[in-house]
Queue: 4 jobs
Job 1
Amino acid sequence: MKTKFLKLSLLALFIFTASCSSDDNNDNTVPAVETKKVSDLNASAGYTKFSFSENKVVTNDNWDIAFNTTTIIVNGGVKMTDAEPNRTGSGAASIVSGTFSSVTLYPAASAFAQDAATVYAIPKGSGKGWYNYDMNSHIVSPIAGKVFVIKTHDGKYAKLEILSYYKGAPATPDPLKAEDTGFYTFNFAYQANSTTTF
């Protein structure tokens, strides 16, 4: 009887250990944060809403940022104009100086801002937010060394680097081709888990 009990106990212990080992391998795997590239997002005619978690343009309220010509808004705060989509989330933005790859930690909570009635979280205007406008060539160029850490509508984080404002991301854009203006190309990395790093 004791031998039978001992064998059953050892068998149960073995099954329990194997089961825990298998669960540990599945539960502790943290997905790597991948850099993704979006090309030619059309923001030339009204606000285009984008979701980092879905990696696509969306029409619902689960958007994180929205683009309209050179204006970028976040899904948090208040509307400045009636043309903007409603803010239904807790989104915010922080502007960080550095290269895209060098931004690996989230800024402090105090560094984030939401859109307000008089100023956007990502300021609008040449030299103030994400771009410079050249009065002679009439070209809009992303400011080098500006990375935007975005708090998403649902409290996750993404980092964003704008590469081009022109269709096809040409090295030398033609600002006189109005049909090619207002097409964003950008890199982003989305952090879906609760860590504070990219």
Note: The chain has a mean pLDDT of 88.
Job 2
Amino acid sequence: MRLQKYMAECGVASRRASEQLIAEGRVQVNGEVVSLGVKIDPEVDTVLFDGNPVGLDAKVYVVLNKPRGVITTATDTHDRKTVLDCLEGVEARVYPVGRLDMDVSGMLLLTNDGELANRLSHPRYEVDKVYSAWVKGLVMPDVVKQLEEGVELEDGLTAPAKVSIVKNQSNSTLIHLVIHEGKKHIVKRMCKAVGHPISSLRRVSMGNLSVSNLQPGEWRYLEADEVERLYGMVGLDV
């Protein structure tokens, strides 16, 4: 098994991120720093990341209703509250799947299942992410059509989205967007590009997961059937 695949399955990081960790010289196999391309036998070889043993822990899946003002990262150098600080009682080392900006709230999945996390984040598998956004100004049907057909950004044309107007209020509009891209600040950039900057943003759901029954800051473990459905969405066998 390739080392980066093993690290992903152990929940260290995604395959791509694990490749970077290996390239940085932070991974050892049987006491020696290794380079990309190494294959291991998990039954025989000992793997260390930053001096800590890497192993196949039991898979853990947690969904969090992330509050605003919380950082989507495992640690923060400025001592700000992170999503892991919200998971009191979760003993396993889990990592967020994708990220929500500090000022964005809503549904966030955290897991140590690196392969699932990698696929859920990859646009190839087209996992729907649903957002609810208050934007400035009154959104007209032509703007909805533009968002649905794709918006030209500095890093290319966005993939087609599904957009609906929920309601207008004063000089603002509540819209729902369904996308499957994971580019940085993608929803904010899309709305700004069509002349309607976002005032507040919340992720409602991802795939079959939502936080409709969770208050901000609350979390729960996924049920077995929820995990099975996520696996099916991205072509993995349970």
Note: The chain has three domains: 3-53, 61-123+208-233, 128-206.
Job 3
Amino acid sequence: MRTEHDLRHHGDAEVRDDGAKLVDLAVNVRADTPPAWLRERIAGSLGGLAAYPDGRAARAAVAARHGLEPGRVLLTAGAAEAFVLLARALKVRRPVVVHPQFTEPEAALRDAGHSVGRVLLREADGFRLDAAAVPEDADLVVIGNPTNPTSVLHPAEAIAALARPGRTLVVDEAFMDAVPGEREALAGRTDVPGLVVLRSLTKTWGLAGLRIGYVLAAPELIAELERAQPLWPVSTPALAAAQACVEPAALGEAGHAAHRIAADRAYLVAGLSSFEGAGLRVVTPAEGPFVLVRVPGAAEVRRRLRERGWAVRRGDTFPGLGEDWLRLAVRDRATADGFLAALGAVLG
């Protein structure tokens, strides 16, 4: 296993430049998004570009969506900005990131000068949370739920149990709206001390290029993070998108999409199981819009899949994983059939 990991590598690197024409199973943004109605809402905001952005309405809408006061919400330019704000604003002595997971939190902490500890969850345990592995003196703990790239959904109460006096507990719920019923969500909870929940609207709604997300936390911390932001950090079109995506009709559409993703994921996992004889293993139960697989010679498999027109995400850039791992985005069944046929030819 590699001792150093490229924390700045992301799935979009697989589909840039010479990969632009590949079928994209590397990026976790939901296919066929943003929907037409959302594009229209965003386009409708363009007439207001001469004015400085006013985030009050969007902030209130996000707060109402989670049953919170607006003072507990901070809108950000995607969840990635939130990680940077936390790294710069928090005065912590022993931050810990639970891996394997999205690498931006650790990268942001390191860039801010912090020495970051790692808790590596074990493949033998299905990458489930081992609370005993988290150092008792950690004053910042970062964990994803459902976790990218493992697709593991940790029980909400198991994560909440990590809370301690003097500890900030950051839960990245960027993919929680892809889980039917958002079960195990902590967003909206105010009874967990030190809880910070991050949400992204870029994955489900196809807004990676617009950059919109938000932080849910105690008002004191929200005010501290807001002071660390530049003026007008979220654009008028992004604010319009945020408000639109938390309206009842949009939440209903996201709920239907979550059930469809679950069905498509089950179909993909069933197809992947046919390659167990070639040494391929899927991390299950998978609960996110992606699955993590281990296959011998993954780098060569990935290269040969590219030759056949398919892009998948390498897994060896995630701490806790090695060179035999790949992450696959869940797509519709026709796309899954095409991919499984290509994978069969590669594993042959």
Note: DSSP finds eleven helices and twelve strands in the chain.
Job 4
Amino acid sequence: MALTASPVSQALLLDLQALDTKIAQLTHRAKALPQHAAIAALTAEIEALRVVALEQSGAREDVQIELGRIESDVTVVAARIKRDTDRAQSSTSAKDAQAFEHELANLAKRQYALEEIELSVMEKLEEREAALAVTTGKIDALRAQIQVIVDERDADLGVLETEIAGATADRSTIAATIPADLLALYEKQRARYGVGASHLRYGVSSASGVKLLENEMQEIRAAAPDAVIMCASSEAILVRTKESGI
């Protein structure tokens, strides 16, 4: 049995379709806000810098290990110098004193060489720490920039979500007044083809923008006012009004 519904009920489908179109447009705008792309781009920059920071942190750690090893060597040499100095001072043997003097001279050279290396490594460590600090600073600056954009995005989303909520509430109110079978058909066609109802205005289907042929218009004119007619070009419910040109 062909579906029927009063012209008033069918006309309500146009209001429903208008709201569904509005909701879809608002949802698309929410997803396409420029802040989304900006945040993604800045986040990608941060990820790239985090890789650099990780490498720089590893390089700094290597230098710290190297410095620790040299400092340990310096400590060992200093201890040996103190020990030999104490022994030389307490020794009564001229031969031992000469040996200690020779040993101390070699230890002094070793200490000087190690301290020079230590100074060089400390400078290298400062360079590594400075490079890491620069990268970390860039990351912090980007994060601050992202937060500003996130705040802007959330504000814009808040406006759009309020509009979507209002349109959704209006849709629910209208949908509740439409016969269940007619609403089910509308929802089915909208899910399949993207549009559930099409306004026939002066012989043109609003959903497809296609002008109906004369024989199609004749069939529509002959149909009962409560007959539910489908649009051949859009597969949506074709709603007739005073503007249909029938």
Note: The chain has two domains: 7-14+179-244, 33-175.
